[in-house]
Amino acid sequence: MITIERFTLNNGLRVLVHHDPTTPISSFNLLYNVGARDENPDRTGFAHLFEHLMFGGTTNIPVFDEPLERIGGENNAFTSNDITNYYITLPKENLETAFWLESDRMQALDFSQRSLDTQKNVVVEEFRQSYLNQPYGDVWLLLRPLAYKVHPYMWPTIGKTPEHIEGASLSEVKDFFFSHYAPNNAILCVSGNVTKQEVETLANKWFGPIERRNVTPRSIAPEPEQTESRKLTVERNVPFDAIYLAFHMSSRLHPDFRATDLLSDILSNGKSSRLHQNLLKGKRLFSDIDAFISGDNDPGLFVVTGRLIDGVSFEDAENAIIEELNSLAEQGVTEYELEKVKNRFESKFAFGLTDPLEVAINLSFYELIGEAEEINFEVDRYRNVTSDDIKRVAKTMFTAKNCSTLYYKSIK
Amino acid sequence: MIDRKTPPIANAPKNVAIPQAECHILTNGVKVYVVNKGEVEVCRIDLLFDAGVKFQTKHLVANGTLYLMPEGTKNFSASQIADHLDFHGSYINRATYNDFSRLTVYSLNRYFSETLKMVEEVVKQPIYPNHEVDIWRTTGKQELSVQLGKTNALAQRTLLTSLFGANHPYGKFPVPTSYDNIGSSDLKEFHAANYGSASCTIFLSGNVTDNHLSLVEKHFGSATWGEKSKGIILPQVELNRNESVVFTQKADAVQSSLRIGRLLFPRTHPDFPEMVVLTTILGGYFGSRLMKNIREDKGFTYGIHASILPFTDAGVFQISTDVGANHTQDAINEILFEIKRIQSEPVEQLELDLVRGSLMGQFLRSFNGQFSISESFIWLLYFNNLDYSFYSRQINAIQTISPTRIMELANKWLKVDDITISVAGSVNPNSI
Question: Per the CATH hierarchy, to which homologous superfamily does domain A5-206 belong?
Fold first, then answer.
C-alpha cells in the first residue's frame, strides 16, 4: 500500500508526498499538464522542443544541469501527446536543490535566440535519428494522420515535419511558456525519505512566490467516429514488408480502458499469446508481431503490427490478423486466458513499484487523471474485468470501418 | 524576495554505503549471491553461464542455444512452457554476451515455486526441435537484416572488427546467411558442453525468503548436472590500431553514426578507476565536454557519449554519436579537438568537482534498489572476478585524481594515433 499525503499551494500547485524511508535517493517529479495535443497544427513539435529549451538555463541559473550534477543529482524529461514531465533524482540530503532548480525555471525561463537556435538543431537531429534514419522509423508520421482527421493526436510529439521545428520563433516560444507552464497547471510529487512537513516548507519557500497564470483552456475537438476503412500503402527502403492496423479505442478514463488493455495482452503479451502462437509460430506469417494500445488520455489507438516473412503477401497477413480479431469478437476469451493476462499485469505492475522514480512519475500521472491513490487499486480494477467485457470491446472495436491500415512495402 | 541566484547549501555525496551480497554455496558447489531487499513481494533470479559468444565455434550457436532453451524440452512443448510462465506472471529474459550468457527471470513471490520448476526444465532439458530451430532461423535472419539497416549497428560492428581483428570472437559478427549453417545438433552440442552446474553462478534479488533459497537448492543445487565449459584461450590482440578511419557505406542515410575508440584494458587494470573519471569528463554525463561542444554548442547531434565497453579480458574506450550527414567531418574534428584538449590543458577545479559530484551520484544510483544492487554485483563479482575493494578504489580515484594525472592518462591511453574512427552513413570522411 502506497501512502500519499498532499497539499495545494495558494498559487494552485498541487503537491504529493510519498514517504519512503528505504532509499538514500529522493525522486522529484514535476508534471505539466501540456503535451503535443495542445499545439497549433501549423507549429507542431512545440511541446517537445519546449522541453529541450527548459534545459537552456535562466538568468539566475545560467547552466541548468551543472549545479545538480555537482551534488550527485540527475535529471531528465519526456514529452507525450498529453503531458510534459520533468524529473530529478538526487541524494536525499540535497533535496532543496531540486526545488531551487525547478521553481526557478517555472518562474522565468531565459529565452535567448541562441539557445533556441541550438535546440532547434538538436531536435531536428533527434527527428532524423529516431524517425528518418531508422528502418520503419516514420511509421507514426504516417499512421497518425491516417487514423486522426481532426484530433491533434494526428501528429507525434516530435511534430509533423522538421520544418515546423525550424520555423519556431522566440515570441511563439514565450507565448507557449506563459500559457501552459504555470503552478496552477502542474503537479509535483516528491518521494523518498522525507516528511510532508519538510516538503511543505520547501514548496512554500521556492514555488510559493510564483504567481498563478492564465492557462489557455484546452478546447480540443473530439475525433469524429470513423465511418469507413482507410488504407495507405507506402514504399520504403527497408528489408521486409510490414503491416499496421490501427483501431480507435476508448479514452484513458473510460470504463472499457482496462479491458482494452488486457485485450492487447491476450493478443500479444508473452510468447503464449494468440498472435505469437498462431501467426508467428503456427502459420509462420510474421517474423515479429505485436498488439498494443497507445494509452492516451483522449481516445487513443489500438494497434496491431507485424513484419511479414519474406514472400508472404499483405492480403494473407492482413486476413490472418483479422481472423484472430474476429475470433475474439465472436468467441471471446477463456477464463484461463483472462487469468493469465491479469497475472502478467499484476507482475509487471508490482515490478514497477520497486522503482522509486517510476512510482513518483506514476503518482503524478494518476493525480492528473483522477487521484494518486488510484495506484493502490489498479491491480484490483484490472482483476474486475470480465470475459464479457473483453468480448464486447472486441466486437465494438474490431470493425472494418474503425480501422486504418498501413502497408509498409519494402523496395529492395 | 527570495535569492534565486545562490544555490541552497548542498554537498556531493562523499561516501556511499555499499551493501554486500550474502554468498551461499549449494550442495553441488554452485554459488548463489543473495541481495535481500524490498517490500514488494517479487524477486528476480539471474542464472549466469560461461557460455557466451567466445565459447562458440560457429556464428550464432551461443545465441541460438540460449534463445531456444524454452522452445521445447524433454517433458514440455514450447507452447506449454510459454503458457506456464505467462500464466504465473513470470518474465524470462535471455541475453548472450561475448563472455557469458544469462537467463533473468522475474517472478511474483507467490509463484516462485511454479516458476523455478519450469526454469529448471528449460535449463537442463532443452531438446531443440527442428521446427522451432527453423522458426528461429527465419525470424532471426529477418530481424538481423533489419538491424543491419541501421547505421549505428554498422558503425559499432566495424569498429570492433577493426580493433580486435576479424578472427577474434569479439571482432567477428554474423550476417543473415549465418543462420543457414545452424542446425539442432549444433545447439544440442553447445548446450551439453557448456550448460552445467560447474559453469553456473546464480544471483537472487528482491524480497527473498529462506523458502526461495531452499527452492534454488532443490532445483539447481542438490546434484551436479551437465558439463563444465572448456576454458577458452583468446587470440592475442595488438593494443595499437592499424586503421585510422573505417567506413561503411549506407547510401541514403541522413545521419552518420560515429564510433571512435581504441582497445583498452579490463576493469581489473590499475588505471581503470581513473580512466572512468577521464571518460566521464569527456562524455560520461549530460554536462560533459562532448555534449557541451557537439550537442549544446554546435547542435550536430541529439546525443554523444563516451564509455568503456566491458569484456572479461579487455576493454574498449569509445565515443558514440549519430550526427547529421552534413556534419560528419565537423563532428569528427570536434571530437579529436576535445581529445587533444584533455591531453594538453589541465582540467579546472570547478569542472573536476562537477565530474566528481556527477560520478558519486551515478555511483549512489547504481546501489539504489534491490535490482540495481544485484546488477552491479553481477558485473563485479561474476564478470570481472573482482571483490568489493574495487568500489573503494573507484571512489578513491573519483575523489583524489589530480588534473596532472588526467593529462598523463589522456596522453598515455588516448593518443590520437591509437584511435580508430568508424563511420557508417552516406558520407565517407576518407574522401573529404
Answer: Metalloenzyme, LuxS/M16 peptidase-like (3.30.830.10)
